[in-house]
TrEMBL record:
<comment type="similarity">
    <text>Belongs to the aspartate-semialdehyde dehydrogenase family.</text>
</comment>
<feature type="domain" description="Semialdehyde dehydrogenase NAD-binding">
    <location>
        <begin position="16"/>
        <end position="74"/>
    </location>
</feature>
<dbReference type="InterPro" id="IPR000534">
    <property type="entry name" value="Semialdehyde_DH_NAD-bd"/>
</dbReference>
<dbReference type="Pfam" id="PF01118">
    <property type="entry name" value="Semialdhyde_dh"/>
</dbReference>
<dbReference type="GO" id="GO:0016620">
    <property type="term" value="F:oxidoreductase activity, acting on the aldehyde or oxo group of donors, NAD or NADP as acceptor"/>
</dbReference>
<dbReference type="GO" id="GO:0051287">
    <property type="term" value="F:NAD binding"/>
</dbReference>
<protein>
    <submittedName>
        <fullName>Aspartate-semialdehyde dehydrogenase</fullName>
    </submittedName>
</protein>
<dbReference type="InterPro" id="IPR036291">
    <property type="entry name" value="NAD(P)-bd_dom_sf"/>
</dbReference>
Length: 76
């Protein structure tokens, strides 16, 4: 079943995932687990406090930038 405004999983080939606290111990473990288990991620949003925003994190050979957690960051 496709909910209005959403794309079927088979069409987008993965989930949109946000990791809050991406620079902390639990966030880093979550990112590692997503990668090591080859979880189907179509988009990965890394969020943290303003203090850690801008930090670079490696995921599947790519360098991603951590963003500050805000309502604006969550609106996609």
């Amino acid at each position: 079943m496709v909910v209005e405004g959403e794309t079927a999983m088979s069409e987008r080939k993965g989930y949109r995932v946000a990791v809050v606290g991406a620079t902390g111990a639990v966030g880093q473990q979550m990112i590692h687990t997503l990668e090591s288990r080859d979880f189907p991620v179509s988009e990965l949003l890394l969020l943290s406090s303003s203090r850690s925003a801008g930090t670079k994190v490696q995921y599947k050979g790519k360098e991603l930038t951590v963003q500050e957690l805000s309502q604006k960051a969550l609106k996609v």
